[in-house]
């Protein structure tokens, strides 16, 4: 069993990053978390997370009020969703941050 963890700054930003964690066992991804985080008003906020917590691979979109929207991937392997999540976050993190900040403003 191999455990891998690292944090990747996004496009040179010091206030946007994604956190990568996975467990590889016999060439199979057993568990993983790919989480986009942004530092907003001096606090790191979880915004989008792909993971295998509590069952099959899924995507959580975390809202400023603490609610979570969930999207499931029932026909994909853990490795496929891990790769998809990394690519999605790298490509769309600015959009996710903008949506999160817009929601924050609406609830002030």
Low-confidence stretches: none
> In total, how many beta strands?
6
Helicity range: 25-40%
In which order are the strands of the major sheet placed? 1-2-3-4-5-6
Q: Using only CA atoms, what is the Rg?
A: 14 Å
Largest sheet: 6 strands, antiparallel
Mean pLDDT: 94
Number of domains: 1
Order of helices and strands: EEEEEEH
Concise overview:
The chain is of the alpha+beta class and 108 residues long. 27% of the residues lie in helices and 46% in strands.
Task: Describe the structure in your own words.
Helix content is 27%, strand content 46%. The protein is α+β, with helices and mostly antiparallel strands and 108 residues long. It has one domain (2-106). Strands 1-2-3-4-5-6 form a six-stranded antiparallel sheet. Strand 2 and strand 3 (28-40) form a beta hairpin. The model has no long low-confidence stretch (mean pLDDT 94).
Topology:
Elements: E1 2-9, E2 16-25, E3 28-40, E4 43-51, E5 58-62, E6 68-72, H1 78-106
Antiparallel strand pairs: 1-2, 2-3, 3-4, 4-5, 5-6
């Amino acid at each position: 069993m191999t455990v891998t963890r690292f944090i990747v700054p996004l496009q040179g930003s010091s206030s946007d990053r994604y956190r990568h964690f996975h467990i590889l066992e016999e060439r199979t991804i057993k568990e993983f978390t790919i989480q986009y985080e942004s530092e907003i008003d001096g606090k790191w906020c979880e915004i989008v997370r792909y993971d295998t917590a509590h069952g099959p691979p899924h995507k959580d979109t975390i809202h400023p009020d603490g609610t979570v929207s969930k999207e499931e991937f029932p026909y994909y392997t853990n490795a496929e969703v891990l790769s998809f999540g990394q690519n999605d976050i790298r490509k769309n993190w600015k959009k996710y941050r903008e949506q999160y900040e817009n929601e924050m403003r609406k609830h002030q």
